[in-house]
Amino acid sequence: MGRAVPSSSPSSPQLGRKRTAAPTPEPPTPRRYCSMDDVMRRACAVDAPPPVARARVYTYYENLICETCGSGDRDDDLLLCDRCDRGHHTFCLRPIAAKVPIGPWLCPVCAPPAKAPKRFPMKQTKIIDFFGIQKDGQDAQAPKCRLSQDARRRRKRSLVMHKKRRRILPFVPSEDGARRLRQMASLATALTSSKTEFSNELTYMPNMAPRSSNLARLEVGGMQVLPKEDKESIELCRTMQQRGECPPLLVVFDSLEGFTVQADGDIKDMTFLAEYAGDVDYLEKRANDDIDCIMTLLLTADPSQRLVICPDKRGNISRFISGINNHTQDGKKKQNVKCVRYDIDGESHVLLVACRDIACGEKLYYDYNGYEHAYPTQHFL
């Protein structure tokens, strides 16, 4: 009979632990290794067909087609609804999806019905605050008089000089104040619906490309310098916009194309309409963004130094102008605006200028592939 061993704890002398003999350890089981002949006999050939179970998993996705056009081609552009698992091509959607969206996506059938954009209040005080219009009541005739004096001095030049180059003209704002208010309210509605702040210039934000990186001299092949006369026209337009005199443009909502821009008055050929505005950033940082309104600002020899304009946070009316389908003749005929990059005081700027006379009510279009020819426009309306 075993003997109890007293506890070593002085506070509980009645507790004890029974001493038992330690079990004899069993010898380890020897590990069995397969021979190379066994491994090669069980292995599948490199060109063997996939297992049947795997084929069953992918059968549905291999036969997936677009619910709009009925084709299963271009599977890289085929989106899968996260609710019904049906497919839709990015270019078959209306509005067209320029890129595959990041995160969950619902098809038009499963997505909640789109709400009409909430109209911006037609109140002068709210519009003045939204666009930061100056309230000091500057003399509106001073810039016009200065421009007319410059024009008289230029008439003394030879006629040949005028034929070689066409000047950029300043826009002519609508004379009716209520009409101008309606134009600005339409832009404010589009910007607020897109959660975008108004900005009429390039902005350089922290953790993005600094202003020192925007050097027009780094453009591959060089960049045309904006002539002095055209620079005066652009400065005049900026001054008018600060006073609340905007170009005669109206932003309207289209069920197929989203927000679009149309002329709210007759516009002459070579009239300045807007500068493409937004945050300046490096292209390589924005290569995977799903926004469809990124604009090239600077193409450098070093790919890491190429710049783009991103109007998703800050922008103006330029982000809502539609692009043409430059793969068809009918699409090319729609173009009435050209997008040109200029060297202005050593920095690159993107200007949108009318390339022909535009009638009142006509929708504005320009070529998204003015430089790189990399934007997929073959499915544009």
Automatic annotation (TrEMBL):
Residues 1-14 have a biased composition (Polar residues). It is found in: Nucleus. GO terms for cellular component: nucleus. Keywords: Chromatin regulator, Metal-binding, Methyltransferase, Nucleus, S-adenosyl-L-methionine, Transferase, Zinc, Zinc-finger. InterPro entries: ATXR5/ATXR6, SET_dom, SET_dom_sf, Zinc_finger_PHD-type_CS, Znf_FYVE_PHD, Znf_PHD, Znf_PHD-finger, Znf_RING/FYVE/PHD. The keyword Zinc-finger applies. It catalyses: L-lysyl(27)-[histone H3] + S-adenosyl-L-methionine = N(6)-methyl-L-lysyl(27)-[histone H3] + S-adenosyl-L-homocysteine + H(+). The keyword Nucleotide-binding does not apply. This is [histone H3]-lysine(27) N-methyltransferase.
